[in-house]
Amino acid sequence: MKIVVAPDKFKGSLPATQVAAAIAAGLHAGRPGAEVVTIPVADGGEGTVDAAVAAGFERVPVTAAGPAGDPVRTSYARRGEVAVVELAGVCGLARLPGGRPAPLTASSFGAGEVLRAALEAGARRIVLGVGGSASTDGGAGLLQALGARVLDTRGEPVRPGGAGLRDVATLDLAGLHPVGHAADIILAADVDNPLTGPDGAADVYGPQKGASPAEVGALAAGLRRWAAVVAAAVGGDWSQAPGAGAAGGVGFAALAVLGATRRPGIELVLDLAGFEGALDGADLVITGEGSLDAQSLAGKTPVGVARAASRYGVGVVAVAGRSTLIEAELAAAGIAAVYSLSDLEPDLERCRAEAAGLLRRTGQMIARDRLAEVAAGA
Fold first, then answer.
1. How confident is the model at residue 375 (pLDDT cuts 50, 70, 90)?
2. DSSP three-state, residue 143
3. Which is nearest to 302 in space by CA: 265, 355, 266?
4. 307-326 pLDDT, tens per residue?
5. Of 122, 150, 177, 245, which has fewest CB within 10 angstroms of its CB?
6. 293 and 325 Cβ atoms separated by less than 8 Å
7. pLDDT at 378 exceeding the cut of 80
8. Burial of 204 (0-12, 13-18, 19+ CB in 10 A)
9. Which residues, listed in sequence order, are joined to residue 77 by a DSSP beta bridge?
10. Residue 332 and residue 154: Cα distance in Å, rounded?
């Protein structure tokens, strides 16, 4: 009996490594003879570097600018000439001082600093995971950290953050690090939104970053201006490219200026972790995340894992803190069943605090319910 446990983090509760370990402990308790392989994963957002480290990459510490400009300690992951850079770990929402939103002034500058550090250390293939950003600056900060100059009509650098884009007039790429020639950049993004328009970065994700309706309008206007300035600099309009709206427009800067190619974040992480190789001889895959809901169906970890497992004919069950998906939605995603921790502990705060124990109990339940069926040839 072989089971592959490949969950994402349970946000606000446990990182993916601890989620996987707790489920595995329950499986071992419920079926001591089973072979359990744990592969913590992520979809390009928070936890992507941790997933790479769990897969055998080296963690490389870096100090870079947080979303408000203050220095933070972060890291990227490296194995040979491949590096994994996680935007959320340096200038994501969790890095906002005191947790206070800064929708107009938060910057992606720090992500560019980490990217530059990986390049200067010799990385030649860089996975740039962009989920969980705090900014809506169109990736201007990232480009500035790489040597580009983002200037207003007076020839002065624009202010940090999306608010500064209202004054942008010129993008000077003369001093840009030759990143496009030095390395292949793969944009790991689980969204396909464009930069501008009703489905763009400001309108869709601005409110999630604390922007009021008026601030959303200001951010959207700045992104439109920025798109025109970048188009003039690179000779083409990338504002409507799928994924350009990822991470408040960091996807746009990566695609238009750095020559990045885009892939779903979960697919990239599964490749890095050797997930398909682990499926050889597997009888069951267990995946999961904190909340299994409509957003999960857009390419989050559980669905990505289920799709990969289905290609090898391996059944999948999910574990979640809570699930709002109906049976038909789960079946369409390739998930046979969901085990929700909220069914064991309805109180949300206690559920989060006791997640490790609840996950162990759930692992035992899966061993009792699912592994018995597999052993019986069901």
1. low
2. helix
3. 266
4. 999 999 999 999 999 999 88
5. 122
6. yes
7. no
8. middle
9. 59, 84
10. 55
